[in-house]
């Protein structure tokens, strides 16, 4: 267990939020290229993530796939009333995944998946105009999922497994819009916790009435990342009994990784050369009501979030162009869980459109190289976060403006079957 | 063949990736030309001229953090969006405030709000660092901010005002010494030589303020046209003011620069005059409550004498149920010392005591709501006046009696320096009105923007100004607008100042300079680094 944890911590590579909130839909190169559909698409070991019930449908005895992405994102902010503008300079996120499956017999398959479905990595210029909400956030969660899949009836398979989630967060922001030490340095609070573990589970069902049509259902449970052993660092507070002392202290916080329901279907056409897929996700974000940080030094930071449940609609297509080349394309619409007035620049996500494409090249009968590309476009939005109150202030101060974001996410992976 | 075919796809993949990888661009990016404009003005070389308010002075000192948030610096930052250029200020070294001359401290450090031993916050001099700004280290070269703390209107045109040799004698100003171009240079000459394309001129506050903060101990010099004969706490003659300021406007507009003139706010807008109530003597204070019967008995005889002399309004009584007004010496009252002494003798007082009372209460009365007690009076009210005590002991009184008769504001009338009486306030407001008429007329005659700071600040004082995050008022320490010296704004107050000047400039010159979010600027600084 400890070794596993250590490995997982090593793998806590920064990931990136792109599916509303801090959900990152980059769990497969093949499926991302198809609009990140997949609950009813049996393509590779990647099905372990999309629908554990599909494991048993993989043709080969052993399947392995792994890959990663580079997330190049930028968020721009401007406020025309005050003439302020800022742009993020976030490090490149690198979500990764690896899945392995083993078919024990025609009715039973097992597998293990490691992937990073949640994360956020946003770096604003230090002390920018929204620095009282966030200077920098790096949130990551790595999921380890042992999986079993069983063919229940001829046309119905089920699957599922426990999920061990290992989360880490660093979050830095200024204590207020204007609080400084005697030198004019902005008072700042940073928190850091690197290996919080929590358990969840997933279960799926796949209905395959014929060779061409599949219907899938998948449920992923809520996982609460409860941080209790991290360190909070207070810095640049004045030497005053009226403000918290500088230095390190403990804190507690709970970050929910929300439950998600996916239903979808796929159908093959033209001698099975063309496959079309549709997925619908519902992420139960309403769990995320408030991010409450309670510090051991007696201060608290209550940050209402009031997220709402949100949906994604995904379309994908796959075309077997030649014996060794498969082309894919997709589109999705991703609704943001962030409600008006709660638009915080730490997850500056409004509704987005994703355009995807990609290809697989079969190097030999066993090995294929998969590439994908996602262009995620956010509509320009005028929004604000209205629930921050400066220390000692009599009224909350709204922080708002115009935000525009985009992300470019190329990915590469390999698929191996035998 | 097959390979080539694949390369095509890969090429297409890369090309498509390149197409979408353009920068994030807003529909209406604010950094595009034409969004913010200077209108008929030209902000490329903004020069600010004035006194402490222009320099960024706050908390009783000029220190780096507040200087960086001076209203001209804030404005220049916004003007940058509309063609404004670099804005150079004669920055001090540190956040201690205070000035040195040849290593010797000549001006104190700034105030911070410190939690004292009794657990309640109060202003105290910051000692967290030593002052390092020495006036012998001078600036050379172009500046943009020519704000000189302490300067009165006529000082800006006074040669030698920046001559270090004159600092010790009070002929020169140590703040101007730091950046004067020469021993006989003038502030206005240096500012004009900076060749402004745009300027703000805010001068004249100290021409009445030093009289006001000194409780009116100076002289109203109206009618005296020779400012070299003025004392530091005097009111400047309005003609002297007008002559000086019109000369400055001429100098600053010589090359066609546009600009803004800012008028003089009411002294009643600032917490220095509104914090200490006229009736601060509360019976809730047990020490004071215990003395009330004896005091009323003692003043009873005096009040009878006042009534007899036809001035019953001078009666002094202390309430056992409500806070009482302090006893003050009002120099505008007819001095009835002699009559009072006679009446008291007639009433059976021993001659010496009658003379003493006559002298002590000859111009005394209790304060009314029309009197303004200066901020610093709180440190003396209800305290023993040791000078008076020594005097009385010298006259042969026993210590107990001498002590009893030497309590500031109770038995010993508060001296002139602690109170602005209505007569003194009238002198101030008469001069202020004249200055402001001059400024408004000069703005009109020279086609400059006129900034009515008086009205803007009276809004802060009367109900406050709402902003995103609260209401800015002139309440001492907690109101947010004024720093701990009770006179100068906090950075947040300076941000508000910048905003209303920007408003006036936008309106006058058809410019579009954005205002600042005043909530992003701090109010008072807390610190317990006060030794």
Description:
- The complex is a heterodimer of chains A (418) and B (531).
- Chain A has helices spanning 2-10, 29-32, 47-50; strands at residues 62-69, 72-79, 84-87, 96-105, 108-123, 136-151, 156-174, 188-207, 213-220, 223-227, 231-235, 247-257, 260-269, 274-283, 290-295, 300-304, 310-320, 325-334, 352-362, 367-378, 381-385, 399-417.
- Chain A is mainly β.
- Chain A has a 14-stranded antiparallel β-barrel with strand order 1-4-5-6-7-8-9-13-14-17-18-19-20-22.
- Chain B has 531 residues and is an alpha/beta fold.
- In chain B, the strands form six sheets. In chain B, strands 6-1-7-8-13 form a five-stranded parallel beta sheet, sandwiched between helices. Chain B has a two-stranded antiparallel ribbon with strand order 2-3. In chain B, strands 4-5 form a two-stranded antiparallel ribbon.
- Chains A and B meet through strand 2, strand 3, strand 19, strand 20 and strand 22 of A and helix 1 and strand 4 of B.
What features would you highlight for this structure?
heterodimer, A: 418 residues, mainly beta, Porin, 14-stranded antiparallel β-barrel, 3 helices, 55% strand, elongated, disordered N terminus, B: 531 residues, alpha/beta, Rossmann fold, two-stranded antiparallel sheet, 16 helices, 34% helix, SGNH_hydro_sf (chain B), hydrolase activity, acting on ester bonds (chain B), signal (chain B), GDSL-like lipase/acylhydrolase family protein (chain B), membrane (chain A)
């Amino acid at each position: 267990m400890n070794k596993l944890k250590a490995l997982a911590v090593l793998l806590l590579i920064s990931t990136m939020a792109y599916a509303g909130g801090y959900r990152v839909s980059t769990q497969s190169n093949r499926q991302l290229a198809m609009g990140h559909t997949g609950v009813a698409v049996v393509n590779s070991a990647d099905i372990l993530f999309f629908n554990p019930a599909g494991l048993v449908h993989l043709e080969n005895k052993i399947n392995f796939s792994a890959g990663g992405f580079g997330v190049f994102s930028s968020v721009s902010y401007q406020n025309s009333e005050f003439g302020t503008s800022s742009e993020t300079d976030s490090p490149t996120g690198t979500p990764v995944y690896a899945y392995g499956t083993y078919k024990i017999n025609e009715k039973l398959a097992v597998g293990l998946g490691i992937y990073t479905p949640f994360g956020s990595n946003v770096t604003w210029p230090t002390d920018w105009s929204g620095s009282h909400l966030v200077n920098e956030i790096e949130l990551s969660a790595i999921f380890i999922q042992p999986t079993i899949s069983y063919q229940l009836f001829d046309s119905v398979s089920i699957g599922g497994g426990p999920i061990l989630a290992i989360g880490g967060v660093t979050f830095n922001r200024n204590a207020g819009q204007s609080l400084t030490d005697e030198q004019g340095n902005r008072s700042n609070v940073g928190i850091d916790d690197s290996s919080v573990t929590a358990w969840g589970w997933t279960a799926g069902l796949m209905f395959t009435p014929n060779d061409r049509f599949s219907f899938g259902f998948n449920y992923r449970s809520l996982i609460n990342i409860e941080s209790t052993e991290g360190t909070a660092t207070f810095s640049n507070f004045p030497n005053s009994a009226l403000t918290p002392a500088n230095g390190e202290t403990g804190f507690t916080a709970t970050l929910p990784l929300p439950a998600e329901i996916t239903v979808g279907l796929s159908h093959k056409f033209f001698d099975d050369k063309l496959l079309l897929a549709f997925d619908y996700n519902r992420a139960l974000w309403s769990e995320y009501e408030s991010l409450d940080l309670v510090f051991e030094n007696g201060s608290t930071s209550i940050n209402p979030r009031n997220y709402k449940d949100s949906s994604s609609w995904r379309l994908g297509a796959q075309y077997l162009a030649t014996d060794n080349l498969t082309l894919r394309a997709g589109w999705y619409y991703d609704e943001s869980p962030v409600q008006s007035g709660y638009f915080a620049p730490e997850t500056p996500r409004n509704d987005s459109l994703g355009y995807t494409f990609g290809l697989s090249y079969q190097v030999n009968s066993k090995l294929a190289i998969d590439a994908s590309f996602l262009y995620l476009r956010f509509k320009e939005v005028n929004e604000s976060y209205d629930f921050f109150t400066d220390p000692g202030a009599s009224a909350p101060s709204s922080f708002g403006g115009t935000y525009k974001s985009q992300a470019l996410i190329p990915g590469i992976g390999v698929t191996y079957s035998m | 063949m097959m390979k080539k075919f694949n390369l095509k796809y890969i090429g297409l993949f890369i090309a498509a990736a390149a197409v979408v990888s353009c920068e994030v661009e807003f529909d209406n990016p604010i950094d595009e030309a034409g969004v913010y404009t200077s209108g008929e003005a030209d902000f490329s070389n903004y020069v600010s001229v004035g006194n402490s308010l222009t320099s960024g002075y706050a908390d009783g000192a000029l220190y780096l953090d507040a200087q960086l948030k001076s209203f001209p610096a804030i404005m220049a930052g916004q003007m940058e969006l509309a063609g404004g250029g670099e804005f150079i200020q004669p920055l001090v070294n540190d956040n201690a405030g205070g000035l040195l001359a040849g290593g010797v401290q000549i001006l104190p450090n700034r105030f911070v709000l410190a939690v004292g031993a009794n657990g309640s916050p109060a202003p105290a001099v910051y000692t967290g660092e030593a002052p390092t700004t020495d006036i012998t280290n001078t600036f050379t070269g172009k500046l943009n901010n020519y704000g000189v703390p302490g300067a009165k209107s006529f000082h800006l045109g006074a040669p030698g005002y920046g001559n270090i040799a004159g600092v010790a004698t009070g002929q020169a100003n140590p703040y101007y010494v730091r950046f004067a171009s020469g021993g006989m240079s003038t502030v206005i000459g240096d500012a004009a030589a900076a060749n402004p394309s745009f300027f703000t001129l805010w001068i004249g506050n100290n021409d009445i303020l030093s009289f006001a903060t000194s409780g009116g101990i100076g002289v109203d010099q109206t009618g005296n046209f020779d400012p070299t004969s003025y004392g530091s706490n005097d009111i400047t003659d309005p003609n002297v003011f007008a002559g000086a300021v019109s000369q400055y406007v001429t100098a600053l507009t010589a090359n066609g620069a546009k600009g803004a003139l800012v008028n003089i706010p009411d002294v009643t807008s600032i917490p220095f005059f509104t914090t200490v109530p006229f009736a601060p003597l509360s019976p809730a204070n047990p020490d004071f409550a215990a003395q009330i019967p004896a005091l009323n008995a003692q003043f009873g005889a005096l009040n009878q004498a006042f009534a007899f002399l036809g001035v019953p309004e001078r009666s002094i009584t202390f309430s056992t149920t409500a806070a009482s007004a302090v006893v003050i010496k009002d120099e505008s009252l007819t001095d009835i010392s002699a009559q009072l002494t006679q009446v008291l003798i007639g009433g059976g007082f021993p001659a010496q005591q009658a003379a003493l009372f006559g002298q002590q209460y000859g111009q005394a009365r209790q304060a009314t709501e029309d009197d303004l007690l200066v901020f610093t009076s709180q440190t003396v009210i209800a305290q023993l006046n040791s000078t008076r005590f020594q005097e009385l002991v010298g006259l042969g009184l026993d210590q107990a009696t001498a002590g009893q008769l030497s309590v500031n504001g109770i038995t010993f009338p508060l001296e002139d320096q602690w109170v602005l009486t209505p007569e003194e306030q009238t002198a101030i407001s008469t001069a202020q009105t004249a200055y402001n008429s001059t400024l408004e007329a000069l703005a009109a005659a020279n086609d400059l923007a006129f900034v009515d700071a008086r009205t803007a600040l009276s809004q802060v004082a009367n109900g406050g100004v709402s902003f995103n995050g609260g209401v800015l008022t002139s309440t001492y320490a907690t109101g947010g607008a004024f720093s701990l010296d009770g006179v100068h704004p906090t950075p947040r107050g300076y941000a508000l100042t910048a905003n209303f000047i920007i408003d006036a400039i936008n309106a006058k010159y058809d410019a579009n300079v954005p205002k600042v979010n005043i909530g992003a600027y701090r109010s008072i600084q807390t610190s317990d680094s006060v030794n």
